[in-house]
Every structure is written in structure tokens, then in C-alpha cells.
């Protein structure tokens, strides 16, 4: 079934890029149906204002709950949930939320309807996610990393790419999904990749890779993945499921 994706933003044109490349193909193939909405279309005042000053004081502006609610009541259509219209999942990018992971991408790739709400300025009124949770909607808030962005648009495009590339038929070669980093209970960084020529500007590819011995190649790549991960991302080694390690895995 086609995955319906609604995105709400004050800069909906930002998502015009979704008509290009793999997203465009996925849309024409009928795998996904993406609509970017302008939040201001749910305002009623001449200034089409979507934000106000923070209660309690402080810098910047906070997105108002009333406008978001008019928008989300319509897009979520929570009165009419049945077999044809399964429960949507509401997602808010938020730099103060848990990190978005491959596990989240996998879970969300099984949804039928995703609604993304892009906050701008200093954020959105905390009662918005609270209200929809209290009314039975699955609401998720995610950060995409420990750095500051101006708004949720970039974060949504990152999450969308991570989710939609997992849809059956989206990628040309589904094998490349199972082999890559961060999948399964075996989240290691990937081993290095080489192509031909075997020697280039005086640098040789590791000879074992052209030995034709598949067992040795697998072992070499596994050792490289373990070594790279412990050096670059020791936090991923901490999270490793011991059962994912084989006897020959070097203790690094
Ligand atoms: Cl989800 N939003 C914003 N504004 N900044 C971020 C972020 C999200 N994730 C990391 N930085």
C-alpha cells in the first residue's frame, strides 16, 4: 500500500526537492504520496501569524497551539480511523528530543500515514504533542543530532530519506540495505570499500581482497569494521549485543 506523508511547514517550498531523484521516482511508482502544506493556510488573521512570545519570558517566538491544532485536526482526521484509514503517526523534529536512529526509521517505514510538523523559531507550544497523545495519536519527537538547526525542515528531510529508502521497491538493490551500518543487533561501522584498479597512485588495495578466498575476505572486513568502530564510535561497541560477536572477533 502507498505510504501517505504529510509535511507541515511555513516553508513548504523547501520540500520541492522531493519531486527529484529517488523520491520523485517513488512518487511516480506509487510507493509514497507526499504533500507539503503551508501552516499559514490554517490561520484566520490578516497577518497569518503562527507564533507568539514565550510565556514566562525569554528570547524568540514560540509556535501557537491554535493554528497547529486546526491543521492537525484536519490532516490526522482522528474521527475517521478504520481499516481504510489506519492510525497516523505524528512526528515533530525537536532538538531537545531523543535521537532519531535506524531502529526508528525501520519502525516508521511500516506506517501507512506519517504527518511531520516542522517547528521554526524557538520551537512549538509543548501542549501540541501533549494534546494529540492524550487523544490517542502516536506522537514522536526526534532530534537528528547534537547541533543547532534553524528549523525542522532539514531534520524532516533527513528522517524521510532514512524511512522511505527502506520501503520495498524504493531502492534498486535491496541487498545493500541489509549489509549496511546500523542495521540489526550488529551496529558496526562498515568496512572500507575499494574498486579497481588494484594499484592506484602507488596505493594498493589490501591484497586479501583479491585473494579469491571468501572466508578470508569476510574475516578481514569484519576485523576492519570492529577496529574502525572501536576507534571512531566506541559508544556503538558499548551497545553491541555480545551474541552478535563471534569467537574470532578480536577483543579491541
Ligand atoms: Cl530535529 N530541529 C532543530 N531545529 N535543530 C536540530 C534538530 C531538530 N536536530 C538537531 N538539531
UniProtKB/TrEMBL annotation:
Keywords: Cytoplasm, Methyltransferase, S-adenosyl-L-methionine, Transferase, tRNA processing
Alphabetical list of InterPro entries matching this protein: Alpha/beta_knot_MTases (IPR029028), tRNA_m1G_MeTrfase_C_sf (IPR023148), tRNA_m1G_MeTrfase_TrmD (IPR002649), tRNA_m1G_MTases_N (IPR029026), tRNA_MeTrfase_TRMD/TRM10 (IPR016009)
GO cellular component, one term: cytosol
Primary localisation category: cytoplasm
Locations listed in the record: Cytoplasm
EC nos: 2.1.1.228
Residues covered by the tRNA methyltransferase TRMD/TRM10-type domain: 3-239
Residues that, per the record, bind S-adenosyl-L-methionine: 119, 144-149
Gene Ontology BP annotations: tRNA N1-guanine methylation
GO molecular function annotation: tRNA (guanine(37)-N1)-methyltransferase activity
Substrates-to-products reaction catalysed: guanosine(37) in tRNA + S-adenosyl-L-methionine = N(1)-methylguanosine(37) in tRNA + S-adenosyl-L-homocysteine + H(+)
Family the entry assigns: Belongs to the RNA methyltransferase TrmD family.
Role noted for this protein: Specifically methylates guanosine-37 in various tRNAs.
Subunit structure: Homodimer.
Record PANTHER family: TRNA (GUANINE-N(1)-)-METHYLTRANSFERASE
Name this protein carries in UniProt: tRNA (guanine-N(1)-)-methyltransferase
Protein source organism: Bifidobacterium canis
Gene: trmD
Amino acid at each position: 500500500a502507498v505510504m501517505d506523508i504529510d509535511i507541515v511547514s511555513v516553508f513548504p517550498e523547501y520540500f520541492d526537492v522531493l519531486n527529484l531523484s529517488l523520491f520523485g521516482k517513488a512518487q511516480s511508482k506509487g510507493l509514497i504520496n507526499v504533500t507539503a502544506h503551508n501552516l499559514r493556510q490554517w490561520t484566520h488573521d490578516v497577518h497569518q501569524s503562527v507564533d507568539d512570545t514565550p510565556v514566562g519570558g525569554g528570547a524568540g517566538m514560540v509556535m501557537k497551539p491554535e493554528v497547529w491544532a486546526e491543521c492537525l485536526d484536519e490532516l490526522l482526521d482522528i474521527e475517521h480511523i478504520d481499516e481504510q484509514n489506519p492510525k497516523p503517526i505524528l512526528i515533530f523534529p525537536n532538538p531537545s528530543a531523543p535521537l532519531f536512529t535506524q531502529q526508528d526509521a525501520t519502525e516508521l517505514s511500516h506506517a501507512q500515514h506519517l504527518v511531520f510538523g516542522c517547528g521554526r523559531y524557538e520551537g512549538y507550544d509543548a501542549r501540541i504533542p501533549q494534546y494529540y497523545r492524550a487523544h490517542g495519536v502516536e506522537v514522536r519527537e526526534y532530534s537528528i543530532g547534537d547541533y543547532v538547526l534553524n528549523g525542522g525542515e532539514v531534520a524532516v528531510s533527513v528522517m524521510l530519506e532514512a524511512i522511505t529508502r527502506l520501503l520495498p521497491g524504493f531502492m534498486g538493490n535491496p541487498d545493500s540495505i541489509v549489509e549496511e551500518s546500523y542495521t540489526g543487533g550488529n551496529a558496526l561501522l562498515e568496512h572500507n570499500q575499494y574498486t579497481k584498479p588494484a594499484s592506484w597512485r602507488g596505493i594498493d588495495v589490501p591484497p586479501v581482497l583479491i585473494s579469491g578466498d571468501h572466508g578470508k575476505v569476510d574475516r578481514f572486513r569484519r576485523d576492519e569494521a570492529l577496529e574502525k568502530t572501536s576507534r571512531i564510535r566506541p559508544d556503538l561497541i558499548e551497545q553491541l549485543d555480545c551474541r552478535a560477536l563471534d569467537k574470532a572477533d578480536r577483543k579491541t
